[in-house]
Amino acid sequence: MKIRATLAAFALAAAGLMVTAAPAQAVEDAGTFSGTETFTDCDGDYVVTSKFSGAFVIQDADPSTDGQFFPFSQLLRFTDTITNPETGEYITVNGTLFFREVQPHYLG
Fold first, then answer.
1. Range of the domain at 59
2. Can you state the percent helix, strand and coil of the chain, rounding each to 5?
3. Cα–Cα distance measured from residue 69 to residue 81, given in angstroms and rounded to the nearest whole number
4. Residue 59's CB: how many other CB atoms inside 10 A?
């Protein structure tokens, strides 16, 4: 229970950072998303049901990158249930991910 409360506090803090941080560039696009999907894994031995939701912000390109880089942030929450259809046994995995791309690096 303590881990769940800690994860919830972290997710809330990350969401607050997305809202309160002043972006250097104008916002190009922002929104929320949610969905579910079901698929098989390990050659059909397990059925995975995934529920997810989140938010994203894409900022306008910085002139110093010649319009080639759009910084973005994403907050994602998910719950995956992995079931063995032969036995009915399952495991549930909950997670929160905060991703923020801050600077491009030229690889060429």
1. 2-100
2. 20, 50, 30
3. 36
4. 19
